C-alpha cells in the first residue's frame, strides 16, 4: 500500500468514527486476528442497516465486500458495483455458489466478505446456510457483526471457527444475537437452518 493510500485510509477511518459518534453510535471491535474471515450481519430489518454498516466497516478499517450474481456486474454499471465492494459469482457455473467463494478465499492472502444470513429485510423462519458452509469449507472464522438499535451499538462482537456441529454452532449465534435488536424487532429472522433435502 502506498503512502497516499495509507493516509487516505487513515483519515477515512477517522471520519467514519466521527460520523458514528455524531449519530450517537458506539463501536465494538472484536475482530479475528487473521487476514481472512467472513462477517455475518444481523438482524437485517431496515434500509438504514446498510449506511450504518458502511460507516461501521470503514471505522473498523475494513472495506465492505459483498457477493452478487454476475449479471449485476455487466455493462457500464459493473465498474460501479465492483467499486462498491461487489464480487460477482456465476449463476449456473460448474461450481456452485459456496464452492466459488471457497475457491476465492483459498486464492487470496486476505479477504473479508460480509453477508446477511437472513437474506431479506422481511421476517423469515430460517437463515440461509451459505455463509456457514463457506466458512467451514475455507477453514475461516465467522465474525459476528451487528447493528443494535436498542443500545445504539454496532460492530463485530466476536468470532468462532465453525466446528461442523451445526446445532452447537447455531447455539453460539443464538446466544450472541439474543440481546441484539434490529430497527424493526418483529422482523427478526429465526436463527435456524432448514433441514437438508435428502438426495
Could you explain how this protein is built, in words?
It is globular, with a radius of gyration of 17 Å. The longest helix is centred in the N-terminal third of the chain and has 20 residues, at 3-22. The protein starts with a helix and ends in a 22-residue tail after the last helix. Helix 1 (3-22) packs across helix 2 (49-59) and helix 4 packs parallel to helix 5 (130-138). The protein has one domain (3-181). With 199 residues, the protein is α/β, with parallel strands linked by helices. The strands form 2 sheets. The chain has a 5-stranded mixed beta sheet, with helices on both faces. Strands 3-4 form a two-stranded parallel sheet. It has helices spanning 3-22, 49-59, 78-83, 97-107, 130-138, 166-177, and strands at 26-30, 36-42, 66-69, 86-89, 111-115, 142-148, 153-160. It is 35% helix and 20% strand. Strand 3, helix 3 and strand 4 form a beta-alpha-beta unit.
Task: Produce a short descriptive summary.
By secondary structure, the chain is α/β, with parallel strands linked by helices. The chain has 6 helices and 7 strands. The protein has one domain (3-181).
Amino acid at each position: 500500500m502506498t503512502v497516499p493510500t495509507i493516509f487516505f485510509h487513515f483519515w477515512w477511518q477517522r471520519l467514519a468514527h466521527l460520523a458514528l459518534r455524531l449519530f450517537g453510535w458506539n463501536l465494538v471491535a472484536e475482530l479475528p486476528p487473521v487476514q481472512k474471515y467472513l462477517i455475518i450481519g444481523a438482524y437485517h430489518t431496515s434500509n438504514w442497516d446498510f449506511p450504518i454498516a458502511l460507516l461501521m466497516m470503514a471505522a473498523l478499517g475494513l472495506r465492505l465486500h459483498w457477493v452478487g450474481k454476475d449479471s449485476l456486474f455487466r455493462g457500464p454499471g459493473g465498474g460501479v458495483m465492483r467499486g462498491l465492494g461487489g464480487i460477482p459469482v456465476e449463476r449456473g457455473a460448474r461450481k456452485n455458489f459456496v464452492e466459488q467463494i471457497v475457491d476465492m478465499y483459498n486464492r487470496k492472502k486476505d479477504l473479508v466478505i460480509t453477508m446477511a444470513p437472513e437474506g431479506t429485510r422481511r421476517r423469515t423462519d430460517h437463515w440461509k446456510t451459505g455463509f456457514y458452509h463457506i466458512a467451514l469449507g475455507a477453514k475461516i472464522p465467522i465474525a459476528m457483526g451487528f447493528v443494535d438499535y436498542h443500545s445504539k451499538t454496532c460492530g463485530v462482537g466476536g468470532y468462532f471457527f465453525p466446528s461442523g456441529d451445526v446445532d452447537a454452532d447455531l447455539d453460539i449465534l443464538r446466544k450472541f444475537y439474543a440481546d441484539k435488536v434490529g430497527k424493526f424487532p418483529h422482523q427478526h429472522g429465526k436463527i435456524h437452518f432448514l433441514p437438508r433435502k435428502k438426495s
